[in-house]
Target: Glutamine--fructose-6-phosphate aminotransferase [isomerizing]
Amino acid sequence: MCGIVGVLGNHEVAPILVEALKRLEYRGYDSAGIATVNNGTLDRRRAVGKLVNLSDLLVHEPLAGKSGIGHTRWATHGAPSVTNAHPHMAGPVAVVHNGIIENFRELRAELAEAGFQFVTETDTETVALLTQMYMNAGAGPVEAAYQTLDRLQGAFALAFLFQGENDLIVAARKGSPLAIGHGHGEMFVGSDAIALAPLTDRITYLEEGDRAVVTRNSLEIHDANGALANRAIKTIQIDAARVDKAGHKHFMAKEIAEQPTVIGNALANYLTADGHIALPDPGVDFTAIDRLTLVACGTAYYACLTAKYWFEQIARIPVEVDVASEFRYREPPIPDRTLALFVSQSGETADTLAALRYCEGKAARILSVVNVPESSIARESDLALPIHAGIEVGVASTKAFTCQLTVLLMLALKAASDRGTLSEEALADHVSALRSLPALMTTALEQNKAMQNTARRLSEARDVLFLGRGLMYPLALEGALKLKEISYIHAEAYASGELKHGPIALIDKHVPVVVMAPRDTLFDKTVSNMQEVMARKGKVVLISDAAGLEEANEGVWASICMPTVHNAVAPILYALPAQLLAYHTAVAKGTDVDQPRNLAKSVTVE
Ligand code: F6R
Model:
């Protein structure tokens, strides 16, 4: 993960670097640092923990200069510490890095042999030392950086800054994204265009294997074969304003509350006035498709699991769903007429991107469902479907999940319509259910207090189980993931019917069991499983609608009443109590809700 920036500016660069790093802090917050060149002198400042610690340090120990690089870290090699924090310096060079140098052990051995000393436990230090070694041998800065890049294996986005060079950054991309921003007599480098948004909207995206020599007035790019490359400058539209919490205590609370609005936006972008699904050009013809492969990670994977039920039940298309990290190395056969679909909020998840690349040239079409339209996954797909969730800052995904679900359901409806598996009447029924979602979500959010009260009790648990059947099963998985990632309470989810095949042994009077069960055709079956839990003194939290609660509320530990909803869209609505229970439990426990420990928003390492 990690976020990197570089600025060749006309003003003092330290505050600009810090501001850009703020916009990249979603990539990691184990440490942060900047380096500048001031009248030819290279120097740096680094601090452990969140960016605010670096800002504090810079108040006491300012760093002058109009050229600089910066880094926010998600630790891979070496614990979070000042020593391991980037930029890494060796003699005349400073380096910031996102990714993993896979052959760093061999390189370290070679450097040790040549008499170089290591002060950090990181893989990145080898990059700085190699560059120093080549410069010691007489190479100029660009040549030394390029020679170093030739030696590196793994995935990286790198920026190099040099002693004595007030107007030079060397940047390189292999496996991790990197954008170059064009200003007026200024140039910028960033892990993404969002970091650069307040500085410029004119962006050149480096492609795989690209290396760039950046000065204030020029950009020279070489491709993976060393040939000069002509990469386009795109004008991008990103809201440059700093996203704020709009009066909420946390970004996560704000993003949960935004869901009626963003779901409305997603619907408006795909539904025509006469209730049909319109995809961006060139669209998809589902009669030319025999099967679907859905691939993603984490929450986006659970969105795919939910979509499997929709595509199979509504459009009668066989669906395979995989976590990207397994898919990419399993080398699965991809039969002709397979549509491969990748779901990712960030559009930069390394495993999902690698899985997409595996499908290139094998699948009939490559589609993606993304929140960041300029992301690598979007750019490398035949067709990218944006989810219109807006920037998601909270590390735990909330509104992106429900927008992913909404777009996936619309896609399943489009497939059903193309393949004639749904009557016009049934299609209209589903579309009207989708259109009812923003209002139903607003009603569901009014249950906030009930969820807060239940969460207070949940916060005392050591383990929590989630149960669901059918479309509620992937949601149970998502509920468990949300709870564990932000409250650090151990949580597991099971398909209700699986409980008695082993996990029921976990149940005793200390274990809350959250049961997601709208009053649908599977309700009675889920309630039977719930009774089995209560018979063993498990504490049931029943999330259902008025009809469901009237039938099955007796003896439960707590209940939450959802509005009555069409079966097909229920997982989108029931995501709200799953998110709010996790949120309030984390608040009750006093954890860092928006930036939970050990996590990062964009997972650009495998
Ligand atoms: C959990 C969460 C993660 C992401 C996963 C994939 O709340 O946010 O599990 O869903 O890391 O990220 P994207 O969607 O950016 O590919």
